[in-house]
Structure formats: structure tokens, C-alpha cells
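Open question from group meeting: does this chain pack into something compact, or does most of it stay loose? Before anyone orders reagents, we agreed to write out a predicted structure and look at it together. Recording both the input and the output here so the notebook holds the full record.
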Amino acid sequence: MTRNLLTITFLFLSIITFAQGNSPFSQFGPGDFYKSTFQSNFSKGGIAASSISPTTLNPSNPASYAQLKYTTGETGIYSSVNFINSNSGNDYLSNTDLSGFGLGFPLGEKTGLAFGLAPFSKQNYSFSYDDVLSDASQVNYTYEGEGSLSKVFLGLGTQKGNLSVGINGQFVFGRLNDISKVIYNSTDYKNIRFQNYNNVSGFGLNTGLQYKVELDNQHYLNIGGTYELGSDYTTSNYLIANYFTVGEATTSNNKIVDAEFHETTDFPIDTRDNPTDGKITLPSSLQFGFSTGKPEKWEASLEYKNVALSEYALNESSSDFVNSNQIILGGTFIPNKKALGRSNYWKNISYNLGAFAGNSGIVALGEELNEFGINFGFGLPLKKFKYQTETFGSSVYLSFGYLNRSNNNLGISENMLNINASVVINDKWFIKRKFQ
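C-alpha cells returned:
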């Protein structure tokens, strides 16, 4: 019954569609780039290049697939609350997304295969300012953005001696919509909205390697690196413009609010039937470091990550990004993974912690934002199963994160509180039956 309930929950979470995120800085580039939300990465602050685990997925480094011991799947929910502070005021935003879906299989003892779906970037922003025309009429300019990019990945990792190598092929897709509105405080002019749609699709690659050294009979050192190639993806672009008026409307609970009434029959500009082709250049990234630990007991990791955000361009229009550089420190600890009985349940819990710091690569008004974060999480094991001499089981992970982006000269601070809840399954599939 427990396994059936777990399977139903896993499949249900996997079909939830991605929602939109919220950040004022998502106006830059294709939106706010996701860090990996898979628990092996998120709960340890973004550790990805050198960490190894036979029971969790690490799509950030496909070389890790070679270490998979069981059929492993993961899916969950990612929720974020964003507190924005600036000299002009404060704001509060929130969103909930699917954190990702992945499924991996061991193909023999030294090769593994994995595939899945994960968010890539999110865009949702809004800002405006007022101006006065030459005839003294007041006008408001509003700029908004919405949309997201996602990726489907398929990868293979294999081990030869102490060296593991892997590669992910990924298909990036989605739509980015930039909206601008001109609202007049006069009936002499018509309010107008421009919607610029950019449909993105294309293939990219992510590669990785890991080299494991046995320090003694109980401890290891693992050196790893991963590189995501910067790639050009195709875009199909069209523009829609329509007129609208501003008035009052009544909500379902009889509350009167300001509303926009858009004309849907008169489009002064509409290129949907004749879109133009373009391209979007997404940045490359490099991450490397080392991990040391004791199998099924503890692991400590130190890594460096560089994202070449300055490479970004959309339809030959570049951004004010600069390259991002971060140091990441993380680890995991399990008191006693083999402890049995309800009284020893807490000894089976996986305790994960990670922190990162560096420059975000986001430049606003000529000033770059710094970035700092700390994440921690718990892997709560479910009922264990036994196959021959092996004991294994699935887990529910509950992780929390804090992220700060700020620049004192600008008087801007963004504080995010993140919650990542996932189901990680471990099971034995493709068992060769023996007949006597």
C-alpha cells in the first residue's frame, strides 16, 4: 500500500505544469535563471560537480549517473516568497512551481541513464513611470514581462577505472513575452499595448566528469567538473498591438477595482501570421570542485561556479549582464543509515547544508548586485524494502533556502525564502530472474 501511494503521488506531481516566478530582476535576459532544484543540488546550496550518490539524481553532472545503484526518480514542488526593499518602497511576491522531474536507471554496474524535465528560467516583472507630453498631457509608461523557459534532458554516464564521464543532451523550449503600455490621462489619445512574443526552441549539451580516489578503506576523495555549452537557439517572433481603455470593474466578491478593457478586433499591428526568425544565445557555465567523505555516512564539498552571462543575446540585442562567479560550500550527514526500528528513525535521516556567495552578474543602473544564500534540508526515509542482501527505500525531502541579492549604492535588496519538497523513489527494476 505504501509503495502504491508513493507511485500515485510521484506521478501526480510530475504532471503539474510550470507556473511563473516573480522577481523585478527577471526583466534582464530570459528572466531569472534557475539553479538546479533537484535535492542533491538544492539542499546543499548548489553543489553539483563533485558530489556522488547512488540513491539521488544529479542532472547537473551527468557523470554521476554511473554511480546510480537503483532505479531513481524525483519530482516535487518548489515555492518561493520574495521580499523586495528599495528606496521607493517595499513589495511582497510569491510563486509555486514544479521543481522538476527526473528518472534514472543503472545499466549494469558502471553505467547509468537518466532523463527528465526541469525549469530553466522564469520571467515576470512590472514597472512604470509617469511623464508629461509637450501639450501638458500626462502619460504613463508601463513595462511588463512574463514567460518561462524549460528543458527536457537525456543523459548517459559511464565509469572506466576511477574516472566517470557523462553527457546530457537537452531541448530548451518556452516563450518570453515583453509587454509595454502607453496610458494617457486624456481622451484625446488612445491607450495602446504592445506585446512582443519570442518563442524559443533548440538543442544544447551539458558534459561532466568525476575522478574518485579511495583514501583508505572507509574514506574517498572525488574531484569533479561540469561544463554547459553556450548555445544558439532559434526564436520565432511576432508583435501584437491593440487599443484599450481604463475603467472600473466589479469582482466576484463585489469589490470595485481598476481594470483594463482591451479591444480585440482592432489590431494596428499583428504579425502572428508572418513571424520573423531570430536566435537567442544562452550562456555557458563551468563548475568544478572536490568532495570528500565516508560512504553512507557523510560528505563535505567545496566548488566554484562561473556563468558567462555576458554571452547572452536575444535577436542580436545584448544585455548588461556580466559574468557571474560563486563559491559553494556544502555537505551531508547521516547518523546511521543501517539503524533499524522506529526508535532509531532519526538516525536514518539525511541532514544537508550548503551556502554560496559571489556576484550575481545582474547590472542595474551601472551597479552590479551581489548574491548570498544558504540552504538546508532533511531527507526523511519511508518504508524500507529488501532484495536479497540489499536494503533500500524511498524518501521525502524537505529543504529550505534563503537568497539575498543587494547593492548598497542602489538601495535595492531582494530576499527570497524558498521551500523545496520532493519525493525521491528508489526501486529495483529489470531484475533478471533465476530458474532452478
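Observations to bring back to the group:
The radius of gyration is 24 Å.
Confidence is low (pLDDT under 50) at residues 1-21.
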